[in-house]
Amino acid sequence: MNVALSVVIPVFNEAENIRPLLAEIVAALETVWHFEIVCVDDHSQDGTLEVLRAAQAELGLLRILHHAARAGQSAAIRNGVKAAHGAWIATLDGDGQNDPVDIPKLLKIRDAADPAIKLFAGWRIDRQDGTSKRWGSRWANRIRTGILHDDTPDTGCGIKLFERDAFLDLPYFDHMHRYLPALMQRAGWKTISVPVSHRRRIAGESKYNNITRAVAGISDLRGVAWLIRRSNPVDVREIP
């Protein structure tokens, strides 16, 4: 199957949000030939899977993966990327806060960019979340940047565009999706941040809070910093 772009969406308990989001993605990309949507249901308990099945009957370009047990967002993204047919991957959160109209924007920037840039990361410059959540993310980004020096103002933004092969070559661990710029840079690739829009959540509840993120983040930061210190990327070329 000749697919130029795969849109991968990790979904957990987003029954009210996912169907409108799918319609927006199709509207945003309908002029782009050969794209697919891969939704990865992380064992939702609210009817999300049933909504996806109904949508699939209408959208032939929609594929559905289902986790038999809750595995987390990083696992959902990686499994979606592994199953994707496209050479390039666009990711979106399933809550509808990312605007699909930003995908063509990222694609246009990619087409004019240095081929060494393998990740185009969304940057929510006008974030539409509560004060506590924005404050927590601001401090987390400062701490992460100070330790990893990844020159990325917003790693938590769900909308990203990256090369499939480059992503699958990265080391996998839980929560790795929050460290993609640093991991790509460790592998020898370049990354850039692109301003994107952000919307308020219309339905459902956020799956994270500052405390759970902080607890996981301390261990993750130490691990990623260790990976960077131990990395030794080398340009390898076959001699004809």
From TrEMBL:
Q: Which CDD domains match?
A: DPM_DPG-synthase_like
Q: Which UniProt keywords apply?
A: Cell membrane, Glycosyltransferase, Lipopolysaccharide biosynthesis, Membrane, Transferase, Transmembrane, Transmembrane helix
Question: Does this entry carry the keyword Chloroplast?
Answer: no
Task: Give a GO molecular function annotation for the protein.
Answer: undecaprenyl-phosphate 4-deoxy-4-formamido-L-arabinose transferase activity
Record-level GO cellular component terms: plasma membrane
Q: Which Gene3D superfamilies match?
A: Spore Coat Polysaccharide Biosynthesis Protein SpsA, Chain A (3.90.550.10)
Q: Can you give the residue ranges of the Glycosyltransferase 2-like domain?
A: 6-167
Task: Set out the biological process GO terms recorded for this chain's protein.
Answer: lipopolysaccharide biosynthetic process
Protein name, please? Dolichol-phosphate mannosyltransferase
The species this protein belongs to is Steroidobacter denitrificans
